């Protein structure tokens, strides 16, 4: 009698395919624009928002289309909780449409002492993408929201990652493909994580770490071109040096 023995390989973490094929980590000196300055165009004529007491000027971020300009920022209420707002200009910032309230769920009481949001615009699809850290009732963490009509209306926010550490974030997308990178709010050392979506951020079903365990990284920014992702970050051990890594989204 012969016994048929089947060898079934144990599939541990090594069997899980990384969604991004990353290249090596590289470094360069800082350049003008690595840390965006607060420009007069972005902060000019910020409107007073009913129910808030102040706009957080240092939180203002912007993204450009052709003549379209979008800016997002935090305003705070009298209880120091925040409201995330977005505003659109069709004439390169000469005039602005009424602001849209993107997320008013904040309950952290941080005032203006909070990470700035991240905003990106894809001209071909007319989609606007936002990522940000927020202290919601159901947990603190990084959230994502998007508009499919040039910022007129935003879909309900989606959690990216929960964690209590206030995380700097970045976002980019084209059409339904979205990448969000963030300071890991649960890491014991400065680490950059990422999530990916092919469903306009309705579901982020792929995630991982941009930076290896031995690399200390913070304040990320990101670019998505077709299936090519490039992430940059500041190195806390050397503020005149920028780290970066490029990967292919499989």
Q: What's this, in brief?
A:
By secondary structure, this protein is mainly β. It contains one helix and 18 strands. It is globular, with a radius of gyration of 20 Å.
Description:
The protein is mainly beta and 250 residues long. 2% of the residues lie in helices and 45% in strands. It has one helix and 18 strands. The strands form four sheets. Strands 1, 2, 16, 17 and 18 form a five-stranded antiparallel beta sheet that branches. Strands 3, 4, 5, 6 and 7 form a five-stranded antiparallel beta sheet that branches. The chain starts with 19 loop residues before the first strand and ends with a strand.
Percent strand equals over 45%
User: What about the largest sheet?
Assistant: 5 strands, antiparallel
Number of strands: 18
Radius of gyration: 20 Å
The count of helical stretches stands at: 1
Unreliable segments of 5+ consecutive residues: 1-15
The global form is globular
Helix content: under 10%
First and last CA, distance: 47 Å
Following the backbone from N to C, one meets helices and strands in this order, namely EEHEEEEEEEEEEEEEEEE
SS content category: mainly beta
Chain-averaged pLDDT:
91
Fold blueprint:
Elements: E1 20-22, E2 26-29, H1 40-43, E3 54-55, E4 61-64, E5 69-76, E6 82-89, E7 100-103, E8 118-122, E9 127-136, E10 139-147, E11 158-162, E12 169-174, E13 177-183, E14 192-197, E15 206-209, E16 218-225, E17 228-235, E18 238-249
Antiparallel strand pairs: 1-18, 2-18, 3-5, 4-5, 5-6, 6-7, 8-9, 9-10, 10-11, 12-13, 13-14, 14-15, 16-17, 17-18
